[in-house]
Amino acid sequence: MEDLLERAKGLEWTAARPGWLLDEPYTGEAVISDERLAEGCFRCRHADLAAAMLEFVCENTWVNAKPAIARPEEDRFESMTALKAELGID
Predict the structure, then answer these.
(1) Which of 2, 19, 21 is nearest to 64 (CA)?
(2) Greatest CA span in the chain, whole angstroms?
(3) Half-sphere exposure (CA, 13 Å, Cβ side) for 18?
(4) What is the chain's pLDDT, residue by residue, as a tens digit (90 residues)?
(5) C-alpha angle with apex 69: 74 to 78, nearest 5 degrees?
(6) Which residues are paired to 21 by β-bridges?
(7) Which of 10, 19, 45, 62 has a CA positioned 20 to 30 A from the CA of residue 26?
(8) Which residue range forms the structural domain that includes residue 83?
(9) SS3 readout for the chain
(10) 0.85 cut: is pTM over it?
(11) Domain containing 38 — which CATH number?
Protein backbone atom coordinates (compact mmCIF):
# COMPACT_ATOMS: atom_id res chain seq x y z
CA MET A 1 0.00 0.00 0.00
CA GLU A 2 2.77 2.44 0.88
CA ASP A 3 4.38 1.83 -2.51
CA LEU A 4 1.13 2.80 -4.24
CA LEU A 5 0.88 5.95 -2.15
CA GLU A 6 4.46 6.93 -2.92
CA ARG A 7 3.82 6.62 -6.66
CA ALA A 8 0.53 8.54 -6.60
CA LYS A 9 0.82 11.96 -8.18
CA GLY A 10 -1.07 14.89 -6.69
CA LEU A 11 -2.21 12.95 -3.62
CA GLU A 12 -1.32 14.01 -0.10
CA TRP A 13 -1.08 11.05 2.26
CA THR A 14 0.35 9.96 5.58
CA ALA A 15 0.99 6.31 6.45
CA ALA A 16 1.07 6.17 10.26
CA ARG A 17 3.19 3.35 11.69
CA PRO A 18 2.24 2.79 15.33
CA GLY A 19 4.11 0.53 17.69
CA TRP A 20 2.34 -2.44 19.26
CA LEU A 21 -0.99 -0.93 20.34
CA LEU A 22 -1.71 -0.66 24.04
CA ASP A 23 -5.12 0.05 25.58
CA GLU A 24 -4.05 2.48 28.29
CA PRO A 25 -4.90 6.18 28.88
CA TYR A 26 -3.56 9.08 26.82
CA THR A 27 -0.15 10.43 27.83
CA GLY A 28 0.75 12.99 25.18
CA GLU A 29 4.28 11.57 25.31
CA ALA A 30 4.37 9.66 22.05
CA VAL A 31 7.64 9.90 20.14
CA ILE A 32 7.10 10.50 16.44
CA SER A 33 10.01 9.55 14.22
CA ASP A 34 10.66 9.11 10.52
CA GLU A 35 9.65 5.64 9.24
CA ARG A 36 11.03 3.55 12.14
CA LEU A 37 10.18 3.42 15.82
CA ALA A 38 12.59 5.45 17.92
CA GLU A 39 15.04 3.46 20.00
CA GLY A 40 13.45 2.29 23.24
CA CYS A 41 9.93 2.89 21.93
CA PHE A 42 7.94 -0.27 21.28
CA ARG A 43 4.32 0.34 22.31
CA CYS A 44 1.75 2.94 21.24
CA ARG A 45 -1.32 3.80 23.25
CA HIS A 46 -4.52 4.05 21.20
CA ALA A 47 -5.25 7.58 22.44
CA ASP A 48 -1.69 8.76 21.72
CA LEU A 49 -2.01 7.37 18.20
CA ALA A 50 -5.33 9.16 17.72
CA ALA A 51 -3.82 12.44 18.93
CA ALA A 52 -0.86 12.06 16.59
CA MET A 53 -3.13 11.37 13.63
CA LEU A 54 -5.26 14.42 14.44
CA GLU A 55 -2.09 16.50 14.57
CA PHE A 56 -1.01 15.15 11.18
CA VAL A 57 -4.32 16.21 9.62
CA CYS A 58 -5.07 19.45 11.47
CA GLU A 59 -1.53 20.84 11.36
CA ASN A 60 -0.70 19.39 7.94
CA THR A 61 2.43 17.67 9.26
CA TRP A 62 4.05 14.49 7.96
CA VAL A 63 2.55 14.91 4.48
CA ASN A 64 3.69 12.18 2.07
CA ALA A 65 5.58 10.54 4.92
CA LYS A 66 5.55 7.42 7.10
CA PRO A 67 5.80 8.56 10.71
CA ALA A 68 6.33 5.92 13.39
CA ILE A 69 4.53 6.55 16.68
CA ALA A 70 5.39 4.93 20.02
CA ARG A 71 6.72 5.66 23.50
CA PRO A 72 8.76 3.89 26.15
CA GLU A 73 6.53 2.03 28.59
CA GLU A 74 6.95 0.44 31.98
CA ASP A 75 8.33 -3.08 31.97
CA ARG A 76 4.91 -4.44 32.96
CA PHE A 77 3.73 -3.51 29.45
CA GLU A 78 6.86 -4.51 27.50
CA SER A 79 8.32 -7.52 29.25
CA MET A 80 8.30 -10.87 27.48
CA THR A 81 5.86 -12.15 30.12
CA ALA A 82 3.48 -9.24 29.48
CA LEU A 83 3.64 -9.67 25.71
CA LYS A 84 3.04 -13.42 25.94
CA ALA A 85 0.06 -12.82 28.22
CA GLU A 86 -1.37 -10.30 25.76
CA LEU A 87 -1.05 -12.86 22.96
CA GLY A 88 -2.51 -15.65 25.08
CA ILE A 89 0.73 -17.64 25.01
CA ASP A 90 1.69 -19.59 28.12
Answers:
(1) 2
(2) 49
(3) 16
(4) 778 877 878 889 999 999 999 999 999 999 999 999 999 999 999 999 999 999 999 999 999 999 999 999 999 999 999 989 999 997
(5) 25
(6) 44
(7) 62
(8) 2-87
(9) CHHHHHHCCCCCCECCEECEEECCCCCCCCEEEECCCCCCCCEEEHHHHHHHHHHHHHCCCCCCECEEEEECCCHHHHCHHHHHHHHCCC
(10) yes
(11) 3.40.50.720
